[in-house]
Prior knowledge:
- The chain is α+β, with helices and mostly antiparallel strands.
- It contains 13 helices and 17 strands.
- Strands 6, 9, 10, 12, 13 and 16 form a six-stranded antiparallel β-sheet that branches. It has a five-stranded parallel β-sheet with strand order 2-1-3-4-5, with helices on both faces.
- It is elongated and about 70 Å long.
Amino acid sequence: MKKSLILVLFLTIYGCDKDSAKPVPYEDIQQLMNQAITGINDNVQYIVTGDSTRDNHYNEMIAYYIEQLSKANISVYNNSASRQSGQDWKNNADQTTLGQAVAATFGDGSNTILEFSLGINDYSNGATKEDIKRWLKEGLESYLRSKPEAKVLLVTPIKTGYKKRNRVLKEIYNELSFELYIPLVDGLVPTKTVYKNSDYYHDSTHPNKFGSIRIVNYILSEIGDSLFHDTVTLVERSANSIPPNKIEMLGAVEIGYWDITTGEARHNTEWRKLSSITIEPNFILKIQHQGNRFDVIFMDENFDFISSEKSFTWLTEAYRRITIPENVWYANINISSDGYLYDKTNDIPSVKYFIETSKVLKIDEINDGLDIKLRIE
């Protein structure tokens, strides 16, 4: 008999409700992890399913999962991507999907732990609580039908700048844990006290490297037992996080220009522009080139026009800056209205994120305020 059916029958007979129900234990997950640690099972894997709060080009969270879980002889599969939603994951749309998670899972799933944390982008896209819950539940049920022995771990999405979204997603995850009898880690716990602290967050939604380490440490500490805690040890960090300002986004120089009222490409042999660049909202861009145009046109995920602004000079520095608004996915940048003169400069344009250097945090600072059971090496 399915665990969820057993739970429903128990609650029906004994009159318990979801508010008084005890948390689902991590025993199955712990047993599988310990099999990997002791060498009984060399095929244990940990699949991370999520959005940009798990995987983007600067927070290094997946790399930290790999570094830590490799100590326990557990492999990691990345099933996360920036902007992914629970609806698209369920429908096998966009970058990471239910189908990919199923294909990556060994056999019937008996050697697999799937960590699941989606929903932030569903809410941001205007979905109701009922819709988000239905999409997440249908996706999880589809996965478990294909891989019935897999151990699923729900992780409540982390704290962001939208209080209502935080509350609604927490409610959804509590209900899913109860209804599907799946263990849950509250992702708000490691993030609620450090939110808006630039030592842990890059912007209003995304944790930086140290915030990511804090989250992973908390999750692994919560689900592991004493053997796991002694095996997956904490690591002191001597190097600072690698911020987005070190990531070059070079678009190719092209003939023509971007229309500043529509964002559309126009052919004009006298103009030069950069090919469209994929970017993250809320950051500051550093733009440097030797042209005479500084238009930056922001576009949404459907490549529809949002706004057009000019980058501005910053004191005596050679580059210009501009802040990326909310909901932006692409930047279209004009370089020169005198392309023939520009071509003679042999210029190589530079577009980077600008992030102020943050301090290095010691491991006790990273985990400040949390009850982390993993010991330090």
